[in-house]
Amino acid sequence: MRSLQLLFRASPATLLLVLCLHLGANKAQENTRRVIIQNFEIPTTANRDEEVTAKLQVQTELKECMVAKAYLVSDVPVEGAFNYKYTRCLCENYPNTYYWDFHTNRTVQIAAVVDIIRELGICPNDAAVTPISKNRFYTIKTLVVA
Known about the structure:
The chain contains 2 helices and 8 strands; from the N terminus they run ααββββββββ. The protein has helices at about 1-10, 10-30; strands at about 35-40, 45, 50-60, 65-75, 85-90, 95-105, 110-115, 135-145. The strands form 2 sheets. It has a 5-stranded mixed beta sheet, with no helix packed on it. The mean pLDDT is about 85. Pfam families: SVA. Belongs to the PIP family.
């Protein structure tokens, strides 16, 4: 019986090792990187026929680069530069900023959409990744026209 108690008795070094391994495993599980971080800015109100500027800043926490296509979508038709689509290489320490200038006569809901796509000739040496879980990200804002 005495030998069995010695076998199950943990030394301080063993307990410290188990504690360190446990803390290290928890830290590794919390280290998730965000694929896309969006900051979409438009005025909340505008006058009829006033030019409005929409600004979208996109960044990633991934270490690999991606090909990102950014565009706007609305619940009512909007003409002009609103319909421009931008395709650029998005890398960790180099956020992309996009601008759209447009006019509208009605209140409109606008979605800033970023698609991660497979396209050659955008990123250097065509070195880009595509996320497996999700490749479309969006933010919706409302522009009230008085």
